[in-house]
Design a protein that fits this description.
- Strands 6, 7, 8, 11, 12 and 13 form a 6-stranded parallel sheet that branches. A 3-stranded parallel sheet has the order 5-10-9, with no helix packed on it.
- The chain is of the alpha/beta class.
- The chain is globular.
- The chain has 6 helices and 13 strands.
- The relative contact order is 0.18.
- Bound molecules: zinc ion.
- Zinc ion (ZN) binds next to strand 6.
């Protein structure tokens, strides 16, 4: 005599099959058949989302120049507080990709201007330009995590990069950058304010250069000059987010 037990399975999000039905097990003891029933509780099939990875200081990469052979350079513009309709027109007309590291106070004050820029991303340069190696742990966290929150409010997405004011950082700053969810601390290897391109002893720009500028009244003039040099060197500007992911 054979009694077959019917077994159905449900596959969980993790791919582990689990028996969810009653299983009837025949037990022949006295010539008659008795049955016992074991009930396995139903298992929820709700998809379990993996926990987001918590970054540690060791996950943060410090970058002065992007490793690439593509003929691209990266224009990054930090604090300063001057944005104008003329600058907007110049950036938009020439579709210049810009990685902006504005401090929160400026980003929020000019949020309408910044939100209108199509070829720009918004990264983290602290809340109020504090000297990051001299502040308390609490202020350090506020300067970094607080600035990311402001950028999210303005641009609806989180910054991916942190740039320390004055380029000043240590391991505590790096740990805070990780805690606030960013895995790159982005420095620079070229400066281009005031219509002068400074390349630390080199004669021309090269692939992967990260160029530092500021939102100064002279920015548009500096950009015109820089763009001429970028073209002359056979390069074009690109967004960091297309290279550092
Ligand atoms: Zn700065």
């Amino acid at each position: 005599m054979a009694t077959s037990a019917v077994c159905s399975t449900t596959v969980l999000a993790q791919g582990v099959p689990v028996d969810t039905t009653s299983t009837t097990v025949p037990v022949d003891t006295t010539g008659t058949t008795t049955t016992t029933t074991t009930t396995v509780p139903q298992v929820s099939t709700t998809v379990v989302k993996p926990k987001p990875k918590v970054l540690k200081g060791k996950d943060v990469k410090v970058v002065y120049k992007v490793k690439t052979t593509d003929p691209v350079v990266f224009i990054t513009i930090d604090d300063g507080s001057t944005v104008t309709p003329s600058l907007a027109k110049y950036l938009d007309r020439n579709k210049i990709p810009v990685t902006t590291f504005a401090v929160s106070v400026m980003l929020w004050k000019h949020r309408e201007w910044f939100r209108d820029r199509k070829y720009m991303t918004f990264e983290n340069h602290t809340w109020n330009h504090a000297h990051m190696t001299l502040v308390s742990a609490a202020q350090r966290k506020h300067e970094v995590c607080g600035a990311s929150q402001v950028a999210r409010n303005v641009a609806k997405e989180s910054p991916m990069y942190f740039r320390p004011p004055g380029g000043s950082f240590n391991s505590k700053v790096i740990n805070t950058v990780a805690k606030c969810g960013m895995k790159y601390l982005v420095m620079w290897n070229v400066e281009a304010d005031g219509g002068v391109v400074r390349m630390a002893g080199r004669g021309k720009l090269g692939p992967g250069d990260i160029i530092l500028m500021h939102y100064l009244p002279s920015l548009e003039r500096s950009l015109v000059h820089l763009m001429e040099q970028i073209k002359r060197n056979g390069l074009k500007p690109a967004l960091l987010r297309d290279y550092l992911t």
